Amino acid sequence: MNEHRRVTVPADLAGVRADRVLAVLTGLSRAEARNLFEGGRVTVGGTAVARSTRLAAGDIIEYPQTETAVALVAAPVPFGVALERDDVVVVDKPAGLVVHPGAGHKSGTLVNGLVHRYPELGALGAEHRWGLVHRLDRDTSGLLLVARTATSHEFLQAELRARRVGRTYLALVHRELDAATGTVDAPIGRDPARPTRMAVVPDGRPARTHYRRLAGWDDVTLIEVELETGRTHQIRIHLASIGHWIVGDGTYGRQLAHDADPGRVWLHARRLRFSTAGGEQHTVVSALPQDLTDSLRRLGEPVLGSVEL
Q1: How far is the C-alpha of 268 from the C-alpha of 24, rounded, in Å?
Q2: Active-site residue list
Q3: Are residues 154 and 277 in the same domain?
């Protein structure tokens, strides 16, 4: 008889199909995850569910252990650390590093490196996402919050759901902004025309992004972005929806050649503000990586505002 394992749905995967959630949290391929749902072998809260079921934050998925759902392998992976405490670590992630295992990325991820550097995260396992509180896309650089204990992870996940974790990004977008500040309030869900992508859709989950202009050139603008919610690809989708797609974003943007293109999405997780379970408040700031500072230098002096490298 196969051993059963359990994982808890995090806030940033709420509303996502059960088979996709299982794949993301366990490193299984989507096909492997789908197969586990056959014959009612996957349960949520003790009840068998279909693979298309949309899950809620905090739902507990129980599934049979398989040969492919193996324990995570610790391995040295380079990444920066902006803050280290007994209960939490703030990682400064380089661009190009995949955060967690999944289809096509069984090893060499940030999680493999985290478990190697902080062995206690291996004990947290997939049930607590190896301590990950939220995610960053592969090509996004900057700050990522990681809990080192189950208590800290549960507390920080609750803080994230209550929108008490501040996440500020820097982005370079095409075209000049008409207003110095603004908010995009538009629901995000699976793109019906391209299921591998997300999009602004009427029946999507509520999503809100605030932005502020920092500096402007003739055809690009540097902005500061504050997340109120944290949907998959939210910043990229919201900015593209108002005609200011991010420089270097070939998925949600347009393939326009530009001297400021760093060869990846021009998006950096700049600042994190959070409180620990013990009540201590922290604000952590990440310096721009070299490829993005080089990008801004190529632009020269801005027409509007200023840039601090």
Answers
A1: 23
A2: 137
A3: no
